[in-house]
Hints:
CATH topology of chain B: TIM Barrel
Number of helices of chain A: 15
Radius of gyration of chain B: 16 Å
Helix content of chain B: 40-55%
Bound molecules: pyridoxal-5'-phosphate
Oligomer: heterodimer
Structural class of chain A: alpha/beta
Number of strands of chain B: 9
Number of strands of chain A: 14
Shape of chain B: globular
Number of domains of chain B: 1
Structural class of chain B: alpha/beta
Radius of gyration of chain A: 19 Å
Order of helices and strands of chain A: EEHHEHEHEHEHHEHEHEHEHEEHEHHEH
Amino acid sequence: MHSRYGPYGGAFVPETLVPALQELEGTWRTARRDPKFRAELARYSRSLGGRPTPLYRAERLSRRAGGAEIWLKREDLVHGGAHKFNNALGQGLLARRMGKPRLIAETGAGQHGVATAMVGAALGLRTEIYMGEVDMERQRPNVLRMRLLGAEVHPVSTGQRTLKDAINAALRDWIAHVRTTHYLLGSAVGPHPFPAIVADFQSVIGNEILREARRRWGRPPDLAVACVGGGSNAIGTFRPLLRTKTELLGVEAGGPRGHPTGAASLARGRPGILHGTYSYVLQDRDGEIRDTASISAGLDYAGVGPEHAFLKDSGRARYVAVHDDEALRAFRWLAEDEGILPALEPSHAIFAAVREARRRPASQRIVVTLSGRGDKDLEVVGRAIRI
Amino acid sequence: MRSGSDGGSRAPGRALVAYYMVDRARIGRYVPLARAARRVGATHLELGFPFSDPIADGPILQEAADRALRHGTHWADLLSAIRETRSILPTIVMSYANPLWTRGLERSLADLRDAGASGLIVPDLSLEEAGPWRLAADRARLDLVLLASPGSRLARIRALARASRGFLYLVSRYGTTGGGAISRPSDLAPLVRTAHAAAPGLPVYIGFGIRDRASAASALASGADGVIVASALEHALARAPSTATIARVLRPIASAVRAVGV
Ligand SMILES: Cc1ncc(COP(=O)(O)O)c(C=O)c1O
């Protein structure tokens, strides 16, 4: 595992955090080769998390698109309702191994907060979650879930009061309590070794896709599509497919029409340093981080994981931005065609997948990672489409 | 003019570094601000460039940065502020990594040097990432000041001290800038001693949480060569922006610095 992806990545952090990052890297390197750790991870994944998740053939959605076949990787069925559990579980076990009794985490959509709260409860670790006030308002059901799971939720009132500000608050807490606390970062962002660890624990998504694809079709899919906030479900989907011929498409939030950036760091940002990593960042001429906008709290972030920056530059993956109204349309397609309420984050990926399917022959297969379910978003969607 | 005690015009004795946030609303007033600090015993100024996401800062400096950005503070304002203060006190710049990087490291550092800065502190630059920055700073003849922390192992303190220029910035405790008790002198002393042994002649200044005579005296009891005062000054200036405020905050700290002697 490397600390750099081409020029991207690294660890731009205050010195106070360096010993903890080194300890985390060391623990993870030994744990991932330790059969006992792997067995425990597998056991919790299966019997608490509900893994493996299936591939589902979205027949009616494919018919709507008219073209390639669309298949859904059902991460919405994972315990807690999103892929976030995969990483929260892995890092929770690492925290226990390091003897750290307290977990902190940031959350945007609330899914990572919920996953961390579940893991904290299951492993007996005290859990505190930082969440921007704007996100607490728009993802209310998840705030209640976290509290019921025994986590303390700290509202963050600085900056734009969304995901970026929650990460700032969590980092500051970590700097003060680093000896007793593990910062359970929820996406493939942040200083090394976080992007590598998160990608490692999320690679279960792509590994399962590859295994099931080989079993069903005798070959990998033609195209894999995933939404990109910080990029954890996308890198988990992409990593195991890098060695195959599968095309990779990441889908960022384009935000409301007319907004200059949305939250599309790869499409509209420039390389820069945010939250300890060098990657694409939405920033102004002075290097100040710009405000973002997206209907989806989980994609509403000015940065992105460094491995995606590298995959973009190398051309191995493509990245597009999808607007709020397009994601809402895709949300309804999936609900009405397949009986599945998707989260707003993967609704962006669904839209892009349908657009791709239209341009491709029926012989091709597209796998979209359905990273989470939509219960948390019902209020926002209901308001947006006036139901 | 170097930032530390290894050269320059500093009077003999320990150092007192006074921090001001760069704020467009203050441009033109940095001369009296710097003079006021010097009058009561400050030996250096640290000018902070506001950043939108200052992860090493507590609420006081976060708010000061937000305010400065709301006032439309830009890179050019930092350069103006340096030009105002450089002839009054050696001026060190504090900036997070991204504003410097995004402009192009060579260009940023040349700008700072040309404006008259003597050193640079980057709170989110780790030793692991510092390589290209140290080269660029050497080329620009700027002191790149590295930070150490109470959690740094002694071997790391040695490496940090050897790589740091001007002085070594020892963070007083686990935490962000601003309020909170600093570590005990007995906890900090081994770090200071180790740095001194590894880099003879390189002073060690302690910052974070220095706000009054007691905290300054406690920091200096570790054997450190100086203290850095930031949040306490910004907090007071936000309420009463006058040179009298500066004197009120710095005078007791300066007396602790003088009490230690040379
Ligand atoms: C369901 C779901 N999908 C995707 C994301 C985006 O995160 P990432 O890009 O790390 O997968 C989130 C984040 O909260 C989420 O809740």
